[in-house]
Design a protein that fits this description.
By secondary structure, the protein is α/β, with parallel strands linked by helices. It has three domains: about 120 residues, no CATH class; about 100 residues, Beta-Lactamase (2-Layer Sandwich); about 250 residues, Rossmann fold (3-Layer(aba) Sandwich), CATH 3.40.50.300. The chain is built from 14 helices and 15 strands. The strands form two sheets. The chain has a nine-stranded mixed sheet with strand order 9-8-10-11-7-12-13-14-15, sandwiched between helices. A six-stranded antiparallel sheet has the order 3-2-1-6-5-4, covered by helices on one side. A hairpin with a 5-residue loop joins strand 4 and strand 5. The chain is elongated and about 80 Å long. Bound molecules: adenosine-5'-triphosphate and magnesium ion (MG). Adenosine-5'-triphosphate binds next to helix 9.
Length: about 475
Amino acid sequence: MFSKYKKPSSEAAPALKEPTPKANNVEDLTAIAAPQTSVRRKAPQAAKPVPIDKEVKRKQRMSDIKLELHRALLDNLNLSALEHATEQDLRQEINAISAEVLAEKSIVLNREDRKTLNSELYDEVTGLGPLETLLKDETVNDILVNGPQQIFVERAGKLELTDITFKDERHLLRIIDKIVSAVGRRVDESNPYVDARLQDGSRFNAMVPPIAVDGSLVSIRKFKKDKLGIDDLVNFGAFTEEMAAYLQAAVATRLNIIVSGGTGSGKTTTLNALSSFIDNAERILTIEDTAELQLQQTHVGRMESRPPNVEGKGEVSPRDCLKNALRMRPDRIIVGETRGEEVIDMLQAMNTGHDGSMTTIHANSARDGVSRLENMIAMAGIEMPLKAVRSQISSAVNLIVQASRLQDGSRRMTSITEITGMEGEVISMQEIFRYQRVGLTPDNKIIGHFTATGVRSHYAERFRMWGYDLPSAIYEPFAAQ
Ligand SMILES: Nc1ncnc2c1ncn2[C@@H]1O[C@H](COP(=O)(O)OP(=O)(O)OP(=O)(O)O)[C@@H](O)[C@H]1O
Ligand SMILES: [Mg+2]
């Protein structure tokens, strides 16, 4: 019956044989998922007067059946042959095995439950188990796992707890193992955390016990195939059309731009959207820890830095990539995030002919961003007087765009600030646009509006010379002020 993918009969184990856990290939990893204790459906409860939550019971029953069937699948499927199986074949095979086991155990399920069960089994065998549904759910931005029983997701800027769980820590660990071994990495007690990229491009980070105290911690930033563009961001209220026009002039006239913001504030999304203003004729090189940017131009060279392997070898740092990029005749360099010693080369590149370069940093305001840059330079071991450091920053960076996630979950560009030079020892800046908060609605939504500050751009003349003659009205403050 399970011709192609069934194990030879000598190997096939009886449907409920205890599996042998451990080892590193996918087949054995999958085996670890099988439960250690025998799975029994709960005896029907005697008619007690207590209210029974039918949905919870149904879910429990489904979960028990799934475990039982999963084990039967592991025993019956020749997992190493699965790689070559077509999806249709495999689904058929799984449906057949599950039908057989259900019949054997006299378990009757309705059509819908059976369909769900089979699809979950398919995810379990081929994919990432409980995570699979969330990965497919387009409305989910982030998936955050705090141990096997708690999975949060972020939708529209808000965190919510899901009712999806892993069977236990072993199950969660198996899925983590499956992900990291697919990219040639390992995670265990001696390497308790790992960064990786899923096949679909999503960014993945995991930390396992004992460092993660209550069970493994997993964070996934979902990869969006269709990144939000400038128009989407304007429509979502992330910034205004006037700000977009200003940013277009800034990118097109090759200002060096830093997008600053907190975790998940929309830095990468903003950087990606800004890149759409780059001329298609330019050669762009991108450097990222995890390739997330999706540039629309034809001439793009993408680099992904690499952490050291288990033996501590083979590292290619962002700085290595950046140094090399400078030898690759770039017109522009885009660094996904500057967080370490690569800052030196980034500023140097911005100062020496690779103007129009862009990056992001973790900071809560433009001023804070500049201090972060100063700190990074100091941490990189460069001994330079503070004034020299500041002068280097002020001549390298033209614009700091602040991305923020506000308390109601909305993401907005809360400030656009120009760096105009030095005054004594201090870097001088001027804010051109800002988001003005006014209040809070009863359901905790922020009320506010964008406004220009009334300061004309330091680069207005440059914009004009390059053919971006912005009307002076865009610098005028919002009338309601
Ligand atoms: N203006 C926006 N409106 C709605 N969703 C947004 C907006 N900006 C970004 N997002 C979504 O928010 C999530 C986080 O965005 P992004 O990856 O750009 O943040 P980040 O600041 O780069 O995060 P990290 O610090 O983790 O690198 C993404 O799923 C993105 O699609
Ligand atoms: Mg990012």
